Amino acid sequence: MMKFLSLLIAACCSLSCFSQNVGIGTSNPDASALLELKSTEKGFLPPRMDSAQRVAILNPAKGLIVYDTDMNALLLFNGIRWVSIDQTNIIGDPGSRPNTSYTFSAPQFLIGYNNPNGISNGHNGITNQFASISENLIVFSTGVDYNSTSFAITCYFSVDKNGIPSSILYTIPSSTPSGGKLYCFDADSLEQNIYAVINTSLFRLNITNVADTTRIADGVGAASQIKVLGNGDIIIATDLNNGSLLRILPNGTRQTIAANLRFPNYFDVFGGNYYVTDLSAITGSVKKVTPAGVATTVVADVLTPRSIVFDKNGNFVLQANITINGIVYVRYTLYDATGQLVGPVNDASDFSILSTGGLATPMYIDNFNNLVFMHSGTASGTSVPNPVGSLGLWLLKLVKL
């Protein structure tokens, strides 16, 4: 790098009296450029630094460019704030990030995060995977107890169907005296059963008859997400074999769709393929996995990818972390099925939807293309109407232009 800078300075000094512009690698620089670099083997490498170092730059000049290693983005100071070169991120002030393909409604508050529906069972607050969301059914877990005497696991659920809240308590026999742990759950397409992974076993829990519980399969590992397909198959993202997608048939037969996907994984199903997020250290990716288990990367170098869900236009919303002035938030971004950026998820005023906490939270898109998502806190500068005490599920309509 020092050699390159020395050559650059020498070239500028030697040519400044002969020419109004300088070319490196070319004897005919473009007339509109003060400096043109030309190479088919090497690129231009700007200064690289993390977000804290970038923010610490005193009085940055308008047009100053650096590469932020926390954001994995090339940033430019526009005289007011740092912006990414592709204009998909605005750093320090998340306002005004227009999405030219979508418009959005004002967010609508649905249900609270703490003590949902006023249930008081000693396990208030939504836990673990927080919620299972389907067309008419929202299921919250409010805790899990383990009884070492009876070897039973007690799960507390708050169920809100068609706006009518209720409290459901399931007691599940267990042969694994390792402490009750609910990993994740989902409801079937008829919304009659909850499927939950508890202590690495998959259970079916009847919503209308709490005594009707069935252990479907054992040894499914620590699961991050379950999806129940219309044909009755249950897809589970698990930590087995360095991150796997499992298919559990209605008779309990377990099949491995793909392994070595890196865990934790969150996924959605589109066009018969599985779109899976993976994570290694800080960055990760979104992979498309075919039913035969062939995985290809569609979005690379994502900062801590989280949940993923497809909308009715064939685009997916991806949760991923973003660092703003040293604080980690969760950002929502739209991509098409090939991994091409569509734009940010905003509110009606084009302010970015940002949540604090950096946690993966459930998302669902209903038949009207409303995004239902768990909002775990409001990032400074956003216009999401989420006052203190209103953490919970929100609804945002996505309208494709």
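The record above closes out task 2.4. Task 2.5 opens with a second protein, given below.
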Amino acid sequence: MTHQDISSTELQLLLSSCKELLYPNANRGLVETFLSKVDYNKLLRLIRRHQIAPVIYQSLKDFADKMSPGFSHELRGDIQRIQLKALSTKAFLYVLNNKLKEKEIELFLLKGIALAEKYYGDIGLRDVMDLDLLVEPQNLDTVIQLLQELGYSISGEYSTFSNKQKEFVKYIDYHFGFSKIKEGHPRYVELHWALRNRFGNFVLDPFICKQEKSTQSIVNQEYLLELSEIDNFLFLCTHGAEHAFYRLKWLVDIYMVYNKIDIDFNDLVERSISLQCSEQLVLSFKMMEIYFAIPIPDQILQLSKKYKISQWLVNYCTHQIMYNGQYCDSLVEKMRNLRFSFIMNRKGIFNKRLFMRYMTSPKDWSILPLPNSLFFLYFPLRPFLFLYRILTSS
């Protein structure tokens, strides 16, 4: 297991560059000092690992004469690809939204270019890996069909599932992934029909209270729904915390929003309790304190007395940020992540959704197709089908 030290020159340069984007010249001396000591190969790997190339480039562009030419060339190439990806995503979103309006289907934008445009000031300043969309469950199949008509392929074999199998997937999960390899289109789309409720955290249906709790984002002069500022901040905290902040980009998102909006911390605490994401809020502030030296507000400190965050949890998130390998790439990492998931799981042993995820899977269904009326048989047959897969694969 290899790590990137939190005090390493490379990581400190990344953090100083993020601060420089918000507060120009405030960290200029630190940035210049770090540039003279940095290992540019390590720095480039770290930037790509955490998907924060645009922020770093924007902060370092005035130091071009002090940087390695090879590093500058590689970083510029990454930036061009990221900007083209952002522009193609925005253009595709315009086309998709028009088609959805014809069918009177509303969608919420999650993270992505809406976050970049509103809080980073430019859609090209955030590396957008996919387009995250939220639709109401009753519109899911219609939007799936529309994405397929636009050339996207759904991950897995959802289109071949029986009605009972589709119902099961919708119950245990909250999103599907789509992919398309074509110039001028976002490569990946994540279609959500629920917000992060697998662990019982962030319990919100924004469609129910959209007039009260959401604002609108302009994309190509089109009005699109997004979460309200406070709900969006809590969603980012929940998303980042449930992924243990494996990518520094997710912590930078929280840092950027935190510095751009006026927060009434009493309202924030009350809303976090209502949405059942207080632990994730506390954990996010602890991580911002470690990496960005953000003082934890008194209201959050008071909240942390009720919703305690163990030192192990903080250490695990720090480990994930520093880890040089892939997410859960070894048995040890998988066991750590399993422990982390149990801690994050608000519903505990009574989390039916989490339990049902391990009771059957599409792999079982492909081995033994059963009619809807016999779907329940997959549960007792699970160990036998699992053993059959092991034997046949070997």
